């Protein structure tokens, strides 16, 4: 149980910067998710916390000690790997027992601890099988069981669900959330899947190109993206972003004109809004352009326009029908709009 | 039952089978011929009059009274003390395998996990040395070994054979280790192992087939070596292969050729037993190296 702090942490390989000046304070019992596209440095950050990668600069503080120079085994962490890293020659039971054995936990306690982890991960029926005889989801649970069998100060999970199929991913995700709230262990979870991040996290750290883009609760990040990168990364579909010009509270772009925006900022502006906030109207819409495509999602339909270079989509009811090429209008009230500086991508406070 | 789509036409099947049978005969013939002939006298096995004598043993019958004789074996093992050579071979092989596997597993693991660029160059050099004919190295060794009075001893040969073998074992084990995911060592290290404990408790159990296969290849290289052993060993320290060669080299004396033939059979027999015994490990080892896991 501990607080985990990263102070000015850098990772460089020669001139290549993997992680750039990473600062973060993770509270005790927090579930923190590192989110970003592949190669953004999120896994490297986690591996530095685990001690599998050296820190070039900065400090990693676990509890009240700097752990930079400690070996992984001395950091009192446990980790779940993307490929699970199960020991193929050991049974499920022995796999889960392995950390107790190497850490010289008294033998008489082993069975109780292992069985507890096996119950929590529902592996009773597979206890005596070897990893090769298990399905992907079961292997994943063995890896989880091995991580929780002792009480580490921090759990690290490196894309633990990415090798599972979509359905299993949803149920395992729920299981991870439930386990973490029962065990109350500080958890750092790496993923590139924004839905996993939104559903699991107490706080999300969005990373890109080795830099933190935004830190906040899932709601913060969804409602107030700090820049166009976060806006385009979070949400399904991602936020619509249209480039144009803002003058006296009126935003004008190709096929779109929104009035009633703040009069303060002006110049080249990127306007953002979410697909589910806008709606199709018959007349007087802010977007009025030929439709590019219509997609049926089941619970809704997605209408897409091509405005300038960008594709803009909004969700409407599932009965809506129109032909590709028809001029379709949509209402984008100023209240649902986010403004970003086109040059820097930074959010402009309204 | 095979479906029509996967069934082969009869001509192809007949051709494939007959090819296999012919190939098998061609491959096995020298061994079987030597084995059979080793129980004959020289006059039969190297008959100038009629090759069939080697099959029926006409002269063997005339000389010894039976169609089979163990004279060649007796001469080689008892009279010429071939058992000494067998013992020397055993000593050389045991040490070569032990040393090259120890260095090979440790070094192969280190190179497989190294992130430094020199690891690649190191392995490339290893391959270059492996490609060299051993005799090119031996000629360079001779003078210093004479000067330092190291020539003729078994341990010198062990050292040279290890030196020649090591690049190969290193290279082979390196590729076996490469196929074991890095996640395995890393999860062991997070679970509480040091690097060495991870290697010993987690990696080596998974690596057994690879270690055994490499060990066997290394054993065969040492066992079959002629160039190094013949140049570096004195007569009393000879291993089996140069000893067989020396039987052949003194054709003036009758019977010595038959010693060589019986010695060849004696030297081949353990190999068969060995390969049979380890065949399961060899097969799984070979595929483990070939297929990316």
Number of beta-strand segments of chain B:
0
Helix content of chain B: over 70%
- What is the highest CATH level, the class of chain B? Mainly Alpha
| CATH-scheme architecture of the largest domain in chain A | 3-Layer(aba) Sandwich
Number of domains in the coordinates of chain A? 2
Strand content of chain B: under 5%
Can you write the helix and strand succession of chain A as a string?
EEEHEEEHHHEHEHEEHHEEEEEEEEEE
CATH topology-level fold name of the largest domain in chain A: Rossmann fold
Query: Under the CATH scheme, which architecture of chain B would be assigned?
Result: Orthogonal Bundle
Q: Could you list the spans of chain B in which at least 5 consecutive residues all have pLDDT below 50?
A: 289-293
Helical content of chain A, roughly? 10-25%
Major β-sheet of chain B, in short?
A: none
Task: Count helical runs of chain A.
Answer: 8
Average pLDDT level of chain A? 90
Main location (chain B): membrane
Subcellular location (chain B): Cell membrane
Pfam family, one (chain B): BPD_transp_1
Protein name (chain B): Carbohydrate ABC transporter membrane protein 2 (CUT1 family)
Outline the structure in words.
The complex is a heterodimer of chains A (350) and B (293). By secondary structure, chain A is of the alpha+beta class. Chain A folds into 2 domains: 4-226, P-loop containing nucleotide triphosphate hydrolases (Rossmann fold, 3-Layer(aba) Sandwich); 237-341, Nucleic acid-binding proteins (OB fold (Dihydrolipoamide Acetyltransferase, E2P)). Chain A has helices spanning 42-50, 92-102, 107-120, 136-148, 166-183, 194-200, 218-223, 228-233, and strands at 4-13, 16-26, 31-35, 57-62, 65-66, 77-80, 154-158, 186-191, 203-208, 211-216, 240-247, 250-253, 256-258, 267-273, 279-281, 287-296, 301-307, 310-316, 327-331, 338-341. A 6-stranded mixed sheet of chain A has the order 6-7-8-3-9-10, sandwiched between helices. In chain A, strands 13-12-11-14-20 form a 5-stranded antiparallel sheet. A 5-stranded antiparallel sheet of chain A has the order 15-19-16-17-18, with no helix packed on it. In chain A, strand 1 (4-13) and strand 2 form a beta hairpin. In chain A, helix 2 packs across helix 3 (107-120), helix 2 runs parallel beside helix 4 (136-148) and helix 3 packs across helix 4. The model of chain A has no long low-confidence stretch (mean pLDDT 90). Chain B has helices at residues 10-37, 42-45, 53-56, 58-64, 71-79, 82-113, 118-131, 134-147, 154-178, 182-190, 195-224, 227-232, 240-249, 256-290. With 293 residues, chain B is mostly helical. Residues 289-293 of chain B have low confidence and may be disordered. Chain B has a single domain, classed as MetI-like (MetI-like fold, Orthogonal Bundle). Helices cover 77% and strands 0% of the residues of chain B. The chains are: A alpha+beta (350), B mainly alpha (293). Chain A binds chain B through residues 50-52, 71-73, 77-79, 81-89, 98-99, 102-103, 143, 146, 156, and chain B through 181, 183-184, 186-194, 197, 201-202, 205-206.
């Amino acid at each position: 149980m501990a607080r985990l702090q990263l102070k000015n942490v850098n990772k460089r390989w020669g001139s290549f910067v993997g992680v750039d000046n990473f600062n973060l304070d993770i509270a005790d019992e927090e579930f923190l998710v590192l989110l970003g596209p592949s190669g953004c440095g999120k896994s490297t950050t986690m591996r530095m916390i685990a001690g599998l990668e050296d820190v070039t600069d900065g400090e990693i503080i676990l509890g009240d000690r700097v752990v930079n120079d400690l070996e992984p085994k001395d950091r009192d962490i446990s980790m779940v790997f993307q490929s699970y890293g199960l020991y193929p020659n050991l049974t499920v039971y022995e796999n889960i027992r392995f950390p107790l054995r190497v850490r010289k936990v008294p033998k008489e306690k082993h069975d109780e601890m292992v069985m507890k982890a096996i119950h929590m991960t529902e592996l009773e029926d597979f206890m005596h099988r070897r990893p090769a005889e298990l399905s992907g989801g079961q292997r994943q649970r063995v890896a989880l069981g091995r991580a929780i069998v002792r009480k580490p100060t921090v759990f690290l999970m490196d894309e633990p669900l990415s090798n599972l199929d979509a359905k299993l991913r949803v149920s395992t995700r729920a299981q991870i959330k439930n386990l973490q709230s029962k065990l109350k262990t500080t958890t750092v979870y790496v993923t590139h899947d924004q839905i996993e991040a939104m559903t699991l996290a107490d706080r999300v750290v969005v990373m890109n190109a080795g830099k933190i883009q935004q830190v906040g609760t899932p709601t913060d990040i969804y409602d107030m993206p700090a820049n166009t990168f976060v806006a385009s990364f979070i949400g399904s579909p991602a936020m619509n972003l249209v480039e144009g010009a803002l003058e006296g509270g009126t935003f004008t772009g190709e096929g779109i004109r929104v009035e009633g925006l703040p009069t303060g900022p002006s110049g080249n502006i990127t306007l953002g809004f979410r697909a589910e906030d806008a709606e199709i109207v018959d007349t007087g819409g802010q977007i009025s352009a030929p439709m590019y495509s219509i997609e049926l999602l089941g619970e809704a339909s997605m209408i897409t326009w091509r405005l300038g270079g960008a594709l803009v989509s909004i969700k409407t009811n599932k009965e809506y029908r129109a032909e590709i090429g028809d001029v379709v209008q949509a209402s984008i009230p100023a209240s649902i709009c986010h403004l970003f500086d086109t040059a820097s991508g930074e959010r402009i406070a309204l | 039952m095979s479906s029509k789509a996967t069934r082969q036409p009869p001509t192809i099947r007949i051709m494939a089978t007959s090819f296999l049978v012919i190939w098998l005969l061609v491959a096995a013939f020298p061994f079987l011929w030597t084995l059979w002939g080793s129980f004959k006298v020289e006059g039969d096995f190297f008959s100038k009059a009629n090759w069939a004598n080697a099959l029926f043993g006409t002269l063997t019958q005339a000389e010894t009274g039976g169609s089979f004789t163990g004279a060649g074996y007796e001469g080689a093992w008892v009279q010429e003390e071939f058992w000494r050579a067998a013992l020397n071979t055993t000593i050389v092989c045991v040490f070569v395998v032990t040393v090259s596997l120890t260095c090979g597993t440790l070094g192969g693991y280190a190179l497989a996990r190294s992130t430094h660029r020199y690891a690649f160059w190191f392995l490339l050099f290893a391959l270059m040395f492996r490609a060299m004919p051993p005799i090119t190295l031996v000629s360079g060794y001779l003078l210093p070994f004479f000067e330092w009075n190291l020539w003729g001893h078994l341990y010198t040969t062990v050292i040279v054979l290890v030196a020649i073998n090591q690049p190969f074992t290193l290279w082979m084990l390196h590729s076996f280790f490469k196929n074991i995911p890095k996640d395995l060592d890393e999860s062991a290290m997070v679970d509480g192992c040091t690097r060495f404990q991870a290697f010993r408790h987690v990696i080596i159990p998974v690596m057994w087939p690879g270690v055994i296969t490499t060990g066997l290849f290394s054993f065969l290289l040492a066992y079959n070596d002629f160039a190094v052993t013949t140049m570096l060993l004195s007569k009393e320290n000879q291993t089996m292969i140069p000893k067989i060669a020396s039987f052949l080299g003194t054709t003036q004396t009758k019977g010595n050729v038959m010693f060589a033939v019986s010695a060849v059979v004696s030297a081949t027999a353990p190999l068969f037993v060995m390969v049979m015994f380890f065949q399961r490990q060899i097969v799984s080892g070979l595929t483990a190296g070939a297929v990316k896991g």
